[in-house]
Amino acid sequence: MGLWKFLINSILPPRCIHCGCILSEHNGLCAECFKKIRFISEPMCACCGRPFDGEKEVAFGKTLYCAMCLKKKKKLLTMQRSAFIYDDFSKNLILDFKFNDKTSSAETLANMLYNAGRDIWKEKPDVLLPVPLHRRRLLQRKYNQSALLVKYLSAKTGIPADYFSLVRQQNTVPQVSLSGKERRRNLISAFSAVKPENIKNRKVVLIDDVTTTGTTLEECAKVLHKAGAAQIYALTLARTES
Ligand SMILES: [Zn+2]
Ligand SMILES: [Zn+2]
């Protein structure tokens, strides 16, 4: 350990990004908090990444698809993955990251995204796109949490980030406060590809913190599809269980 790092560690020891306890190493979360995260692993739907509870499995050779994906004819999102289940614990972890200026959480969370995205990295995507925030929301919050995740993820994967080609036009009401129908209405024409030439014929990965109904990702995918994206993948920290 360098002298500078030693000094910093003595004055500001690394802390758990969730409970704040002191850690011996810079690994983000303490063992207790880490254990509480419900990470998503195989078996899962090869398309949407939905974890299987055993009953809903449909086997096609070795690849499994959920009933919802088998039913859908047109899929704009080729592949979707999430690091963990959205529950009370992970909700707080993400809220801390979003609102309490815990930008130090970003690296730890981006590493989780990296692990969750291994099937996507195999497809050799061209660019990482954060789900954008509206300018006004961005000013309130000081940073776009998804863009911050993209920054670390881009450094780790070597895949370029694009923060400007996909934008949010309307200052939409936060999705969490709305029902499914309202969510869709709230997002109609909320997104647009201002630089379609940066999207055309490229394999793009959308990055966001949470997906619940999937409406936000779908709306972004529609816009990217229209702009001529070759493939659209989505990677989020958390997703609801079903
Ligand atoms: Zn902790
Ligand atoms: Zn599925």
Question: What topology does this entry show?
Answer:
Layout: H1 3-11, H2 31-36, E1 59-60, E2 63-64, H3 67-71, E3 79-85, H4 88-99, H5 105-116, H6 118-122, E4 127-130, H7 135-141, H8 145-157, E5 166-168, H9 180-187, E6 191-193, E7 203-211, H10 215-226, E8 231-239
Parallel strand pairs: 3-8, 4-7, 7-8
Antiparallel strand pairs: 1-2, 5-6
Bound molecules: zinc ion (2 copies).
Residues 45, 47-48, 50, 65-66, 68-69 line the site of one zinc ion (ZN).
Largest sheet: 4 strands, parallel
Secondary-structure content class: alpha/beta
User: End-to-end distance, in Å?
Assistant: 45 Å
User: Which word captures the global form?
Assistant: globular
- Quickly count the domains: 2
Assembly status: single chain
Percentage of residues in helical conformation: 25-40%
Low-confidence stretches: none
* Strands, total number: 8
Radius of gyration: 18 Å
Given the structure, what is the number of helices? 10
Q: What ligands can be seen in this structure? A: zinc ion
* Annotated CATH topology of the largest domain: Rossmann fold
Write down the overall mean pLDDT. 86
Percent strand: 15-25%
CATH architecture of the largest domain: 3-Layer(aba) Sandwich
What topology, given as strand order, has the largest sheet? 3-8-7-4
CATH class term of the largest domain: Alpha Beta
Plain-language structure description:
This protein is of the alpha/beta class. It has two domains: 35 residues, no CATH class; 170 residues, Rossmann fold, CATH 3.40.50.2020. The chain is built from ten helices and eight strands. The strands form three sheets. The protein has a four-stranded parallel sheet with strand order 3-8-7-4, with helices on both faces. It has a two-stranded antiparallel ribbon with strand order 1-2. A two-stranded antiparallel ribbon has the order 5-6. It is globular and about 55 Å long. The site of one zinc ion (ZN) has 8 residues, from helix 2.
